Amino acid sequence: MKKAWKWIIGIAVVAVIAGLGFYQFGGHSNQQKTVTIGSYGPDTQVWEYIAKLPETKKAGINLQVKDFSDGVSLNKATIQGQVDVNAFQMESYLKYFNEHSNKGKLAILGTTYLEPMGIYSRQYKSVKEIPNGATIAISNNPANTSRSLKLLQSAGLITLKGEPKAGLYSLQNVGENRKDLKFQEVDDHTGPRLLQDKNVAAVLIGNTMALQSHLNVKKDAIYHEKLDQSTKGNINVIATAEKNKNKPEYKKLVKLYHSKAAQRYIEKKFSGTKIDVDKPVSYFDN
C-alpha cells in the first residue's frame, strides 16, 4: 500500500513538473504580455473596449490604455517609451512628425480606418451654393491644412499647384481660385464653433472634432472625403518607436482592431463614420 502511494505521489509530481515545462516552453501559456497603448478623443474608447475583449486575452495581451490630450505629446511619449504603441494619427501626420523629429522616429504597425473630413455649413446645402468671396475656415495643423486643401480641390472649389513640401500642401499651393475664396486658419477645436458665425460660409472639420461636436460626416457635411488613392495619406495607423516595429505582441493589436467584435462596436458606436481600412504597411510605399 505504501509503495502504491509512493507511485501515485511520484506520478503526480512528474505530471506537475511536465505541465509547468509545457506552459513555460511553448505550450498554451497563460502569461499575459502587458502592452500600453496611447490614444485620445473617441479612439480611447475604442481601445478601452478592445482591452476587455476575450480575443485580447486569448492573444496573450494585457492591454493598458492611456488617454492623451494632444498628438505631439503622445508621439513623444511613444518614442521615449512611456507608452509602447499609439493609435490616433493619419499616415501623413506621422510622416510629417518624423520629418521634424530629432529625438527618434515612429514606424507604422498597421492601418485602422479612414475618418472622412467634411465640409460643413449651416448656411448652404451644397458647395455650389458657396458664394464668391466667401470665407472658408480650415485647420492650422499642417497635416490637416494639407488635407483641407485637397478636399476643397476634390470639391471643385480650388486647384493646387506645385509640389507639396514634406508631402503636405499649404496655402501657398493654392492655384486657381475661381470664387476668390478667403481662407481662415483656425485650430481644430475652434472649427465646429465657427458654424454659428455668419461671416464664415463653410468649415472643414476632421471627424474626431465632428464627433465631439455631435456631427455625423455622412449626414451633416455638404461634401466629404471618399476612400481612394488620393486620400490614402489620411488613413489612420497604429504606430510604435522604430526600434520596436518587429515586436510580435505589438503587431497583434492590428488584428485585434480588425476583429469582428471590435468592428461591430465601432460601427455601432460611431454610426459608420470610421471606415475600416485593413491594408499592409507597404500600401503607403506606392
From TrEMBL:
- Give the protein's recorded name: MetQ/NlpA family ABC transporter substrate-binding protein
Short name of any one Pfam family annotated for the protein: Lipoprotein_9
Q: Does the keyword Metal-binding apply?
A: no
Per the annotation, which location comes first and is thus the protein's main one?
Answer: membrane
Q: Where in the cell is it found?
A: Membrane
One GO term describing the cellular component: membrane
Q: Which family does it belong to?
A: Belongs to the NlpA lipoprotein family.
Q: Topologically, how does it sit relative to the membrane? A: Lipid-anchor
Highest taxon above the source species: Bacteria
Identify the keywords attached in UniProt to this record, alphabetized. Lipoprotein, Membrane, Palmitate, Signal, Transmembrane, Transmembrane helix
Residues annotated as transmembrane: 7-26
